[in-house]
Amino acid sequence: MKPMNRPLANLDQPASSLTQAEQLLQFQRDIMETIALGQDPQLALDELCKAAEALVPDSVASIMIFHQSDNKLEVRAAPSVPEEAVVAISHLQPGPSAGSCGTAIFKNEPQFVSNTFTDCRWADLQQFATDFDIRACWSMPIRLSNNQPIGTFALSSFVERPPTDFQIRLLETSAHIAGIVLRREQAEEQLWHVAHHDSLTGLPNRMLLNLRAEHAIEQTRRKNSRLALLFLDLDHFKTVNDSLGHHAGDELLIQATARILACVREGDTLSRLGGDEFVVMLENFTDSLSARHVADKILASFSKPFRLQQHEYLITASIGISIYPEDGNNIATLVQNADTAMYQAKASGRNNYHYYEPRLTEHVQARVAMESDLRTALEQDQFSVHYQPQYDINGKDILVVEALLRWQHPTTGNVPPDDFISIAEETGLISEIGCKVVRMACAQCVQWWSEGLPQFMLAINLSPRQLQPGCAEKLTRLLNETGFPVNQLELEVTESMILEKGTRAISELAKLKRMGISIVMDDFGTGHSSLGQLKTLPISKLKIDKSFIMDIPDDANDAIITRTIIAMGHHLGLKVVAEGVETPAQMKFLKKENCDFIQGYLLARPLAPEQFATDIYKHKKTGKK
């Protein structure tokens, strides 16, 4: 094999006219200028090697990187070393006889070998020394701030010789500068990784997904193939966070990531957009049904319970699918349409997938318009409160008044609550709307009572979004602002909400009850509460869902259910109210079964404040409803 070419000195000024100190200073200045100009790290390392070679005739410089994971050295820069020599020395394993560089890493000390053919430190590299005419070799560890070696800077000499003091200083300076370049490169790589990956799961984030998708779409277009996006959202993820805490939520996301990764190919991309939203990008397929097979695999992987805090929880997922080019020709459109399809999957019962359809966009646009109108309604005070009384079983005394939200849209008129409450829940606007209802209703009741109306309990519906840590404190502030007595307030919460929210919801409700607020379980009978669960809940009243009242006493099954709920509630020491009472026959049946309160159109519809006050005065004067 031919020996290496001897590099020639290439300093602008002849070395003989400069002192060694001046040479070293100029060397440092030139290389640091290269680094300061922000040149490519590889170019900076190559220039470092060439500059060092110019100061040491009959030598070549090299920089090797130590990969601790597999305990091997790899050539990073060696501009004057032949390719065959680089290949021969790569994957060098550190040890006491692995040449100057391998020994330098092994001992974490500089190694100065004057004669490679006789020095035991070169025992394993005799063939290399012979093939490439290496007679001496001096190696200096490149260290991090913690003194751990990350590589070596070496000068290999074609003549037998020990290094001079100047050459040792040159080695030290070169290793230090190489360390600066490598650390800067490492820092830039870390910053790039942080900017493009999710910190919790390590998955690509939205930015990296967009970069990969741009390339993938271009490749797909050229190959005339297809690309699919699967937009995945965990069902009831917020319930995990609220009931078990964010640490458990994070653990669920990590476990879910592992399951999804096991369902996709190595070349596919799984990214986390934030929260519990994931996107799978599938490349290089021609049949759109392939996306369905991946969705099926993911849903099947979620069929096994997740283990969180020593307990098992069954968490499902909903998936929306969009296909390139049918459903969009860019990543933003594909993600948006897959997201739309995912919401359709949720609306269809969750734990399934749905392909994007153009008609879904109309639904989303209507939803976006509704959200915008809701924000405007808050800003312009378009919301009002109507009031519907609850009577004693004889229909004479008003014991409770329920505050009911109403929205009068300036162009479309009255908007039914069923049309906007769910969107307010999803967007989080329900919290602000709920506070507005509490403030308006409490202030209205305080005014009525100051005018001489008889006092009653005020019932207000509490949304799941409001039942968060800090709910009790927020309510306290609202009651203090309006001067409303806390023991005159009832909060109605749905049965399903209590069951979904779990222990955290129960804890917050218990705090409200200790304040003196009565808690009512609304829509009772539509969930799955057990007798054992009811005994532990901080409630004082059950409200039978109107779906059971509407067909009594003619429907035997509804009559049995209603009778059972009343008996069970009384057995547990709870008051029972029936809503949706519209006929005398229903009222007669409920009276016979000893129901405590009744509410419905038979006795009174929800009324605007002015009309309600008039009817209350009439009720007070006449003693009739």
Architecture overview:
The protein has 625 residues and is α/β, with parallel strands linked by helices. The chain folds into three domains: 179 residues, GAF domain (Beta-Lactamase, 2-Layer Sandwich); 151 residues, Reverse transcriptase/Diguanylate cyclase domain (Alpha-Beta Plaits, 2-Layer Sandwich), CATH 3.30.70.270; 211 residues, TIM Barrel. Helix content is 47%, strand content 21%. The chain is built from 22 helices and 21 strands. Strands 13-14-16-17-18-19-20-21 form an eight-stranded mixed β-barrel, surrounded by five helices. A five-stranded antiparallel beta sheet has the order 2-1-5-4-3, with helices on both faces. Helix 8 runs antiparallel to helix 9, helix 12 packs across helix 13 and helix 13 packs across helix 14. The radius of gyration is 38 Å and the shape is elongated. The termini are far apart. The C terminus is likely disordered.
Notable characteristics:
disordered C terminus, eight-stranded mixed β-barrel, Alpha-Beta Plaits, elongated, 3 domains, 21 strands, 625 residues, 22 helices, TIM Barrel, Beta-Lactamase, alpha/beta, five-stranded antiparallel beta sheet
Task: Give me a quick take on this structure.
By secondary structure, this protein is an alpha/beta fold. 47% of the residues lie in helices and 21% in strands.
Largest sheet, strands/sense/barrel? 8 strands, mixed, barrel
Task: Count structural domains.
Answer: 3
Shape estimate:
elongated
Strand order of the largest sheet: 13-14-16-17-18-19-20-21
CATH homologous group name of the largest domain: EAL domain
Note the beta-strand portion.
Answer: 15-25%
CATH topology description of the largest domain = TIM Barrel
The total beta strand count reads 21
Helix content: 40-55%
- CATH top level of the largest domain is Alpha Beta
Number of helices: 22
The second-level CATH architecture of the largest domain is Alpha-Beta Barrel
Kindly report the oligomeric state of this protein: single chain
Taking pLDDT < 50 over at least 5 consecutive residues as the criterion, the unreliable ranges are 7-16, 621-625
Taking the alpha carbons of the first and last residues, their distance comes to 112 Å
> Roughly what is the average pLDDT, rounded to an integer?
86
Q: Assign the structural class, choosing from mainly alpha, mainly beta, alpha/beta, alpha+beta, or little secondary structure.
A: alpha/beta
Radius of gyration (Å): 38 Å
